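cache lookup: miss for this entity combination. No prior model stored, computing from scratch. Input as submitted by user K.M.:
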Amino acid sequence: MVNCNPARPKVEVLGESFFIEFRGEKYSCQAFAANGRILYQIRFNGSVLYVTKTINQHRIPFWTAIPQDLKLRRVVAEIGKQLEDHLIRKLCATTTALK
Amino acid sequence: MCYYNSIKVTLEEYNQLKELETVVAFLNEEFVIHKGFDYGDYPVIRPNGKGHETERVKMQWGFLPPHLRNLEDVKRFRNGYKDESGRFFKPYLTLNATSEELLNKMYKEAALKRRCLIPSIGFYEWMHVQVVGKSGKLLKTPEKFPYLVRMKGQEEFYMAGVWQPWFDTEAKMITNTFSLITTAANSLMKQIHNSKERMPTILPGDLAEAWLYKDLSEQDILDIANYQVASHEMTATPLDKDFLKKANPHDRVVYKEVPELVFS
């Protein structure tokens, strides 16, 4: 038999997908748990962006794309803010980086 | 200290973020809908040269023959072009290679030497349905209704493909490209893909193994490429016409204009 199942990372789908509003359009998002972190997948009509919250050396949290893309810095910050607003509205929770 | 997003993060944090890239690569394979006409990268399975072992590598979906010299040639090849006299040269669509013509011209060498499998959890096809317009008359252009087709009891299945390394003589770079093989539609796919009556060549385990490893004769290659999986082994879910924009693209949506599928 052909074996096509190389080791895969453990990824868990978290909750149901939801929408965020970004520059006047609605886009669907899905949260995933992976490696003890939360990763957000944002679908832009076929293409996909992944973002997560991280923390800098001065312990200030910020949002980053995975993989890193410097050109998307501002977009990612804007989307991160939208994700936080969504979570605050839905869960009455605040997001913080893990450390 | 290392840099990520132009801001210094600790080495430990940097390593964690790099590890997430592996997760993203996995999610891209598992949860993302790949559109052929994006000519993007897709995971492909090929022998790794060590006995019966395989490797999963990313290749560009859209076979590029070796005679193309650079990206300009690729653009012309895929989109068509007009020469100086105004004569139009048609585009070549190489996302799919028809099984019947696999050993003709472009794909022959790849079919003999570079066969691969394309893993999938499901594929999408559109049914063309003549609908009645507001005036009460049949519209000239049929409406298209998408379906997600999967294999019963198989989370992942394998479609036959051929691959071709393409060398960009300007960038001095090699890009591996592939084409997915299609065969005549079975009775279910004839109803769904009713405009062309084709479907991917989905291979069961023994044929997938033969496709990758065996020293096949031309007739064997054609026989496997023409293999037609049975309708009763498939499931088909009707989707929203705009499923690509939906939060849950695989939600079942039934339109009254669409005839019910008959499984035989």
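stored under new cache key. Chain A touches chain B at residues 1-4, 6, 8-9, 11, 17-19, 28-30, 32, 34-35, 37, 39, 41, 43, 45-46, 48, 50, 52, 54-57, 62, 64-68, 70, 73, 76, 99 (CB under 8 Å).
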